[in-house]
Specification:
This is PhoP regulatory network YrbL family protein. This protein is of the alpha+beta class and about 200 residues long. About 35% of the residues lie in helices and about 20% in strands. The structure holds adenosine-5'-triphosphate and magnesium ion (MG).
Length: about 200
Amino acid sequence: MTLTLSDTTPIAKGGERFVFIHPDNPDWLIKVWHERFHKKQEKRVPIVIKFLRLKRYWSLLNELTEYLAIRECAKPNLNHIQQIVGLVDTDLGLGMIVKAVKKENGELAPTTEDLVKNAQYTAEHDKALDEYFDWMRDTDIIIRDFNLNNLVWDELAKKFVLIDGIGSKPGFSLRSFSKAYNKKANFNRIQKFKTRMKKALS
Ligand SMILES: Nc1ncnc2c1ncn2[C@@H]1O[C@H](COP(=O)(O)OP(=O)(O)OP(=O)(O)O)[C@@H](O)[C@H]1O
Ligand SMILES: [Mg+2]
């Protein structure tokens, strides 16, 4: 069955994907990759992409791989990353179904960027962010794209949730080869995130 999404307005949009509310379940979202992203990839991606069996789907496949890898690790705590429900065919291409993180009033959860921009970032968020960094240090998660728009605030669970940016780059990854190297790579991302936060808050 192919879901029709082309006559619906996305609830959110990133550089890579459109985000729709699932027509049959408002607690789920469907993420579909926009054609523009695929075109851009074809032009500027590293040569390694050309050797992949499924060139279009490297970011989806790496996200799925990482999601499964986190489920297997010693301290999984799946509350810290977006729950993946499955895949679905849509008239805009293959879609990934995920659980929506929502506010108490049912709207989509704010990103960290939203919290800062709207002067809603409090000491409670600051504490939860430190806990998030601790979790990152404790797990072997591979986070590629750790920025303020990919981390949303779950006000019901009082936790930050990463909704995008997990998984390694296409091709061979030193990060999946060496845990020590990956820890350092995540540490660098935490430092960068802190710098961006400082700048955004000032
Ligand atoms: N599971 C979720 N729960 C709540 N909001 C979400 C969820 N997934 C995505 N969003 C919202 O949709 C926006 C875009 O989603 P996402 O980051 O997955 O798109 P993208 O195109 O991959 O982003 P990027 O520009 O970082 O590549 C997010 O910044 C967030 O506001
Ligand atoms: Mg994003």
